[in-house]
Design a protein that fits this description.
By secondary structure, the chain is of the alpha+beta class. It has 30 helices and seven strands. The protein is elongated, with a radius of gyration of 35 Å.
Length: 671
Amino acid sequence: MIMNLPALCKHFSPLLRLAASPPALARLSAARDYSDRRGGRISETSVFIQTGHRITELPVVVKKVNDVWELYRRMGIDTTVKQPEDQHLVALPRELNEGEKVIISGFNQCYNSSSIFRLLEKIPINEVTPPVAAQAYKKIVQLENNFEARNPDKAGLGGDDQPRSFFRSAFISRLLLIICSGKNPTAILGGLTAVMRDNNSDDQDMYKDKLLEELLVCVTDGLFPLQDICKAIQILSIFYPDNKRCREVADKLWFGIIDHSKDMTTKDIVAVFTTLPHLTKSRNMILNVLEEKSMDCWQQFKTQDVVEILRVLQQLKYDRISQGFMRMLSGWLAVNIHTVTEQDMLAIMYSFLQLEYMDTALVAALEKIIKLKGCKIMEFDLITTICSYCLAMRIRSPTILEGVGQYFIEHHQSLTIPQVTIMTGIFGELDFQPANGFKFWELAETMLDVKFNQFPPLDIINLLVSFLYLEKFPINFTRKLFNPFFLDRLHSQPNNLVSMSRQQLKLFDTTMKLESRGYEGPFLPKETNYRNISIDSRVMSTASKLMDPMADVVGDITRLGKSVVLSSLPLHPLYVVDLMVYPTHAASLLKFGFNTNNSSNVAVLVLMPEHYDQSGEHLVGSQAMRIRQLTIMGFKVMCVNMQMANKLMMHPKKLREYLQKLYTDACKAKK
C-alpha cells in the first residue's frame, strides 16, 4: 500500500513533520539496515533539509515497526489492547535506591574482576538493575585495565574469569542484556563508557553495536533528556579509533537535539554547544538553532556559560558564526563587565582574539576595565592578552594604551619576558607615544639591558625595530646585536626564523643609518645574492590598475615604474615603491634610493586596510616609518588608499580627480 508521506507524518513527532514538509524534504534515500545482525530494530535513511539557502543531507534513524499495534500507537490511534513494550516508555527514576547504593558500594571494595564476578553470583538477579549492571561492567573494565597497566606481562593469564574467557564473556553479555532492557539513560551511557575501554573482549565490536543500537532506539523513543543526549555525543566522539566514524555515528543523534529545542534552558544551550565540534553534517543546522535560542535568553547566561560557548566556537574554525550572535556575546560582556573575574575575562578575551572578532561594544568594555581597575589588575596575562588583541585588531585606543603604559611602569619588575615584549612593543606597532614617555622608555631600556640574553633573538630584534617606528633609537644595544655570541644564537633558530631575523636585523641596521646621527654602522654587508621577497598580491594588482589613470595624471606612461626596488638599501617590503613617478622617461632608466638625488621623484604607496588602525585614520608604525624614511631620502610621497581607489575604479573620472589631488598635494608638500 502506498501512503502519502506528509499526510501520515501529521501523526508523528514535530521533528518528523518538519522533515517531511515539502520545503524541507527534497529526497528520501533508500533505507538500509543499521545493524548487520538479522532482526535489527532500527534502520537508517537520509533526508535533505533546507535552512535558508543551505541544503544539508542528514542521517535519520528509523525504528522498525513489527506489528500494527506499534504503528497505531505511533499514529496516536487508541487501542484496547495494551502492549507489554509500552511499559518501557515510562521514564525510570534517575536516582539510585538504597539497595542499588549498597551493591555499588560493594563493587567499589573489590580489588579485582574475579571478586566482582563472585559478588554478582550471590546477588539475586532481580536486584541487578540496569544502573547496577552498568556500574559492575565499568568496575570490571577499570580493574582489568589497572592490573594490565601495572603487570603487562601477566595480562590475559589466569583462571576462567580472566579476560577473553568464556566465563567472563557470559557475565558481560548478561550485564549488557540487563542494561539494554532497562531503557535507563544513565545505565546506557555507563555501558557505552565501559565498552569502549574494554579491550579484553573478543566481542567488543558486537557489544558496541548492541549498546549503540539501544541508544538510538531510546533517543528515537524520546527517553533521553537533552543533557543525556549531549553526554552520549561526547562519548561517541571517542567511541571508535577512527574519528570519521565517530562523527558519523554522533551525527545520527541530531534529531534528538532538535526535538528538545523548544524547551532549552541556558544550561541546555551550553551543553549542546559542547557537542558541536563532534558533529559534521548536522553542525550548521544545530548551530543556527542555538544562535536563535541564545538571542532569546542572552541575559540569563552566566559568566561560565559565555566562557564555555566561546571556548567551543574557537574549535569551529571552518564554520561561519553569525555576526549577530557575536554581537550578542560582546553585548553580554559590556552589560556584565562588573561581575566578570580577571581569570574569566582573560579566557573571554583570548577567545575573541582567536576568533578575530571586534566591535565597538567590546572595545568599550576593554576601556572600561582599564579605567576602573587599571594598575590594580593582578592578572598580568590579562593585560598581555588585551595588548595582543589590540595589536591583532589594530585598536589604537588612547585609553587602553595609556593604561598599558602606566601598568608597565608600575609592574615592570614582576613581568616575564613575553609579557615585557608585548607590553613595550605595542606602542611602536600602533604608532602611539606612551603617556609619561620618559619614565616608560627609561624602564624599558633598563629591562632590555638587564635581561637581553633571555629574549629570543627574533623577539628582541622585532622589539627594537618597533622602537624605531617611534623614532626611539636604541643605540646602546648596537654592540649587543652585532655581537658574535648573539649572531650565533640567531642562526641556531629554525630556518624560517633565521630568515625573518636577518631581514629585520637589516631593517634595524638601515634605519639606524638613515635616521640616527650617532650610529657607527652599517654593520651588515650589502646583499649580493638574488632573493625573492613577498609583496601582497592586492597591492600589486591595484598598482597595475592605477598605471593608466596615473598616466593620464602625469601625462606620460613611460614616466611610471611599478614595484621599484630602491638602490643601496636591503631587499625589504618597506623599501619597495609600489609606483614611481619619474621626472622624465630618461630618468626611469636610472636607479634611485640611498645617497641619490630623489627630489624630482614621487613615490606612490598603495596602502591596504592593514596599513591603518581600525578607525582607518592612523597609519601603523611600520608604514609611518616607511613614509618618514622616503621623505628623509628626498622623495615626494603620495599615499593611495587601496579601498578608495578600488571603489572609484568604476568611475574613471572620479578616480582621476582623486589621483590628481593626491599627486598635486604630494608635489607641493614641503620637506
